[in-house]
User: Which sequence fits this backbone?
């Protein structure tokens, strides 16, 4: 569990100062109310916040691997979606040093993972504003409902940040629900002996007067905060170009460097093959980060640059995480209940790749999955609890739904759906209802019988 946060003396003083008469926004004529403290996600009701929509995160981070201390400034550009008297950001642990809204000091206080900012002037609906939070401390990992660790994970030489589903609040304050996507700029300052990586395009690299090295990272396309990443360690980097113009940046921690060389070289080929199936690549950068950190036991589709523990940097896993760039990263779930739209598609991408390039028909993979009891624990569109979001039915039964769709509508229509879905919801959010409606519109017919059995049905059908 994330460490419970404390309200600092400075924060209390700031709150008291702004509660003094004459300091409310009522004088400006706006009668704002506080934004909601959560977006009522079915599994994480307090995740995300209401009342505003983030357009951009500017994160400036300095990290000291020896002490584990992170110093950060988050500059959040957002638009108020209601008359706002106060609004929340999600932040776990760490100490807030100060906050401003549009340059003026803002009162703030903390309760659990909620950081509340109260601007000096209320924010009328439609107003664009800039909130700045400075913070520091040693980030604590977050233990998921299923027992796995996420967030800012310390490694022997540095750290890796993995945010699915709630981990990003352990290293920067934000609207940490997948429905609020934004562009990012990240400035990362580190001791010269380690290398730092993040999402998107590396736009600058400079040595500071004190000898530390700063790299600057730009993510132009909207990104859900759970896909933001930082990797710090003794990485060797390599560059290539894919699809004619997309820069590919890979980074591997030294013990794993030799073993990963062949697959790293293959990345542009795999990307080109996926573009043929899924349509245009949705981002302006690509690559992979392979960490030697043994405490990370899963790969994650961090945007433009998926992250792998050394032991799982293999072709199948790469195909899976790379497919997420279309399914999950570009088309992002509206809520965590829609997670099968990520994992079902990425798993089916493995089956398709195996069929086309490794001579294993998707039907064979389907039948294997059908035979496994673990895949029938619950319907893919309705995981019973947060701890089940990454269980086998979400992946395997999710892929089975897509294979049954393919068998029902035929290869030609299915290919159209496979390319059309990420085109229709490119850089946006979509839910299960959006997908079933879209598939039916392309197929030109009702598919309720298919969804009832394979997507929503509790039991195992009589035959595959
Ligand atoms: Zn996945």
Assistant:
């Amino acid at each position: 569990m994330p460490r419970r946060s404390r309200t600092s003396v400075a924060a209390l003083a700031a709150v008291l100062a702004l509660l003094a008469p004459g300091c409310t926004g009522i004088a400006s004529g706006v009668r704002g109310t506080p934004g909601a403290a959560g977006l009522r996600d079915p599994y994480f009701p307090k995740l995300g916040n209401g009342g505003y929509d983030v357009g951009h995160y500017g994160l400036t981070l300095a990290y000291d691997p020896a002490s584990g201390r992170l110093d950060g400034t988050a500059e959040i550009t957002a638009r108020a979606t209601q008359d706002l008297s106060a609004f929340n950001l999600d932040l776990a642990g760490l100490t807030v040093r100060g906050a401003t809204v549009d340059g003026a000091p803002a009162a703030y206080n903390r309760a659990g993972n909620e950081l509340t900012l109260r601007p000096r002037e209320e924010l009328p609906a439609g107003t664009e504003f800039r909130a700045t939070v400075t913070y520091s401390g040693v980030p604590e990992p977050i233990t998921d409902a299923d027992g796995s660790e996420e967030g800012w994970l310390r490694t022997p030489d540095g750290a890796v940040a993995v945010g699915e589903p709630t981990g990003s609040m352990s290293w920067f304050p934000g609207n940490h629900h997948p429905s609020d996507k934004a562009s990012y700029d990240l400035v990362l300052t580190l001791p010269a002996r380690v290398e730092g990586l993040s999402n998107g395009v590396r736009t600058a690299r400079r040595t500071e007067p004190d000898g530390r090295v700063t790299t600057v990272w730009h993510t132009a396309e909207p990104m859900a905060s759970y896909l933001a990443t930082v990797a710090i360690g003794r990485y060797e980097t390599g560059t290539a170009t894919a699809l004619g113009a997309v820069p590919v940046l890979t980074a591997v921690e030294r013990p794993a460097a030799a073993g990963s060389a062949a697959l790293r070289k293959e990345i542009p080929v795999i990307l080109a093959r996926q573009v043929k199936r899924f349509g245009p690549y949705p981002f302006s950068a690509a690559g992979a980060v392979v960490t030697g950190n043994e405490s990370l036991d899963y790969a994650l589709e961090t945007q433009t640059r998926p992250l792998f523990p050394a032991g799982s940097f293999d072709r199948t896993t790469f195909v899976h995480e790379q497919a997420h760039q279309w399914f999950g990263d570009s088309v992002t779930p509206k809520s965590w209940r829609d997670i099968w739209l990520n994992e079902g598609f990425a798993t089916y991408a493995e089956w398709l790749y195996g069929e086309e390039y490794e001579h294993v028909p998707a039907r064979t993979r389907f039948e294997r999955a059908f035979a496994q009891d673990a895949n029938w624990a619950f319907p893919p569109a309705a995981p019973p609890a947060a701890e089940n979001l990454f269980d086998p039915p979400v992946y395997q039964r999710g892929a089975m739904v897509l294979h049954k769709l393919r068998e029902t509508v035929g290869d030609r229509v299915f290919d159209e759906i496979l390319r059309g879905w990420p085109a229709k919801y490119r850089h946006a959010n979509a839910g299960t209802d959006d997908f079933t409606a879209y598939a039916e519109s392309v197929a030109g017919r009702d598919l309720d019988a298919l969804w009832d059995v394979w997507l929503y049905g509790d039991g195992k059908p009589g035959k595959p």
Summary: The longest strand covers residues 52-64. The domain at 39-233 is CATH 2.60.40.1730 (Immunoglobulin-like).
